[in-house]
Specification:
Elements (H helix, E strand, L loop, with lengths): L1 E5 L31 H10 L5 E2 L10 H11 L6 E10 L2 E9 L3 H20 L7 H15 L1 E2 L8 H7 L1 E2 L1 H15 L3 E6 L4 E8 L2 E5 L7 E4 L2 E4 L9 E3 L1 H4 L34 E3 L2 E4 L7 E8 L4 E9 L2 E2 L5 E2 L6 E4 L2 E5 L3 E6 L6 E5 L7 E8 L2 E7 L8 E6 L10
Parallel strand pairs: 5-6
Antiparallel strand pairs: 1-3, 2-4, 3-4, 7-8, 8-9, 9-12, 10-11, 13-14, 14-15, 15-16, 17-18, 19-20, 20-21, 21-22, 23-24, 24-25
Length: 413
């Protein structure tokens, strides 16, 4: 018999291929190892984009097919081409074969794989390797938030959308995060809440579990009747927090799966990043950031995980005004990186400097009228992107770009 089943939550995943060259030998090749479990068989079939996957050897009951498919899909973000469901054949109450729904033909999927692999490699290169796992989680959070815009059409749901097309909903953010965690050797889980219609991640560091919600760390702003992603804005409120914090009134997460690990780790509840709302950048063992300020003076600081201390690298004097000439006292400059230099903005200029705070240069000057100012800024693919408006939530926003001169941004240091 053929029974058709569709998942309520879209499953969105991707794939990296490794080609191994084996020297020629006179010995006969060893026979391929047959899948030992239903999970292995299903994964192998999905990796090969099989139209019908034979599961007859594993006596999977009809009641267990949904959890089987979800376990494989939710732990393998590389299967970016999975669609929203599957059908199956069964006999005497057990699954004989499963027919996945793919988002594209096998030919299209094969063409997309190298594109996806390149995007994954680029994201992976941006993560420092000789640092603690917690620092790597921070780097992945900031990379994804800085390079992905929340998809307000709610159609982009997988890691390919997130890393290649740079737009996704929560599933895409979470699966891209999980994929990079796997590459880094960090244990992770995908967590979802039907009550919230939302998904996020958990990670295990030093034996303790923590929540990470990259999607909610990427804020959007309402401009009159429409919402917009905030260019260069990176939050850290949902980074490495326990159950008790993510479920409190300020964080508002509830109703996630009761079989998820208990997140009891508290090592980062007072982390330096809690009051940072722009990108945190790693260089030579230190993390550079601008803490949220409440006045005219702002600072670029360098934090050392080994000592737990920060030092001021550079001081910025700047004031943003709003309609009615009210001052945005809490407005903080944005921070970005290009090559071996940091970039930050004031209301009408962008500056660059070395990581040690020397060699300050003006990169860009805007001739602004009225209350217009630079309220958002980011660097993507060696191009400076920034937005000019009369207020952070003004409906009338002008987005501008400027090519950066100098060495291109390289991998993580």
């Amino acid at each position: 018999m053929l029974r058709r089943h569709y998942l309520a939550r879209a499953l969105c995943l991707c794939l990296l291929l490794t080609v191994c060259l084996v020297p020629l030998s006179w010995a006969a090749p060893a026979p391929a190892r047959l899948p030992a479990t239903a999970e292995e068989a299903l994964l192998a079939g999905l990796e090969s984009v099989e139209g019908e996957i034979d599961l007859s050897s594993f006596r999977v009951p009809i009641s267990g097919v949904g959890s089987l498919f979800e376990r494989v899909a939710n732990t393998h973000p590389e299967l970016f081409y999975l669609g929203g469901g599957y059908s199956y054949k069964y006999k005497n109450g057990y699954i004989v074969a499963l027919k996945p729904v793919y988002t594209a033909s096998k030919e299209v999927i094969e063409a997309r794989r190298p594109v996806f692999a390149q995007a994954v490699a680029k994201a992976f290169a941006a993560v420092p390797k000789n640092v603690s796992p917690a620092e790597q989680v921070l780097a992945v959070n900031d990379y994804l938030v800085s390079h992905i815009s929340y998809d307000l059409t709610y159609a982009a749901r997988n890691a390919y959308d997130a890393l290649v097309n740079r737009t996704a909903v929560c599933e895409g953010y979470s699966l891209a995060f999980g994929l990079l965690m796997s590459r880094l050797g960090i244990e992770w889980r995908l967590v979802s809440s039907a009550k919230m219609s939302h998904a996020w991640n958990m990670v295990k560091l030093n034996g303790a579990w923590y929540h990470v919600d990259v999607t909610w760390n990427d804020p959007i702003v309402k401009r009159d009747a429409r919402f917009s992603d905030m260019l260069g804005r990176v939050r850290h409120d949902y980074l490495l927090i326990p159950d008790s914090v993510i479920s409190d009134a300020a964080h508002g997460h509830t109703g996630w799966s009761p079989d998820a690990p208990k997140a009891t780790g508290t090592a980062y509840v007072n982390a330096f990043w809690l009051n940072v709302t722009t990108e945190i950048i790693h260089e030579a063992g230190k993390w550079y950031y601008i803490p949220a300020s409440n006045g005219l003076t702002h600072t670029i600081k360098a934090y050392d995980f080994r000592t737990g201390s920060s030092e001021v690298v550079h001081t910025i004097s700047a004031r943003w005004n709003a309609r009615g000439r009210n001052t945005f006292w809490g407005r903080t400059p944005y921070l970005a990186r290009h090559g071996d230099r940091l970039l930050y903005n004031t209301p009408d200029r962008v500056f660059s400097l070395r990581f040690d705070g020397t060699d300050l240069r003006e990169v860009l000057a805007e001739s602004l009228t009225g209350l217009n100012a630079i309220y958002e800024m980011a660097v993507r693919d060696d191009v400076l992107h920034y937005r000019v408006s009369a207020a952070p939530q003004a409906a009338d926003v002008t987005e501008k770009r400027s090519a950066l001169i100098g060495p291109p941004a390289g991998g993580a240091q």
